[in-house]
């Protein structure tokens, strides 16, 4: 059974992606952004803000429609321009990581701003699990993991937990306040607002499932 620890300010992965949502302000994602700068893949929509913070990513990727002309010229050696519009910039960044043999990935800045972008980015986690083995999406309020096999999660008593199933699949849990026993979640709201009863909880599942855990100390 795979074990998923809660992220800390020292968390790392083979690559970190910064998407064009709300720029990280919670201490944990903010620290991860700073100390993983050398393995940072930045979506072009977030690049102007990142560069204003004097942080230089390894790669800037996307269609570059929102990157300032000044920065396009200044950082042309680290820009990968992909003009096609069939995928969003986050997916372009994830595909870049896949093509560079990345198996563990942290995604920052993927929520906030427009709600349709937030929903799309979260739901895409279920697609990314087929190409990246371990993915953690960290926001200013909590973090998402995506699994497709039985897994155990580090937690704390009282932590808020939500489960999002993208397709009907039998789900069983232990150490959650509202346990599931071979239950299908047909709607996204059905698995929300649960609560951890221990320092860990287990989930039995065999299809993609998105697991959200709220930060114990939110902003």
From TrEMBL:
Stored InterPro entries: Thi_PPkinase, Thi_PPkinase-like_C, TPK, TPK_B1-bd_sf, TPK_catalytic, TPK_catalytic_sf
Gene Ontology biological process terms in this record: thiamine diphosphate biosynthetic process; thiamine metabolic process
Ranges for domain Thiamin pyrophosphokinase-like substrate-binding: 142-212
The protein's enzyme class: transferase
One matching Pfam family: TPK_catalytic
GO MF, any single term: thiamine diphosphokinase activity
Keywords, in A-Z order: ATP-binding, Kinase, Nucleotide-binding, Transferase
Keyword Translocase: no
Residues covered by the Thiamin pyrophosphokinase catalytic domain: 35-128
Electron transport in keyword set: no
E.C. code: 2.7.6.2
Protein's name according to its UniProt entry: Thiamine diphosphokinase
Organism: Commensalibacter papalotli (ex Servin-Garciduenas et al. 2014)
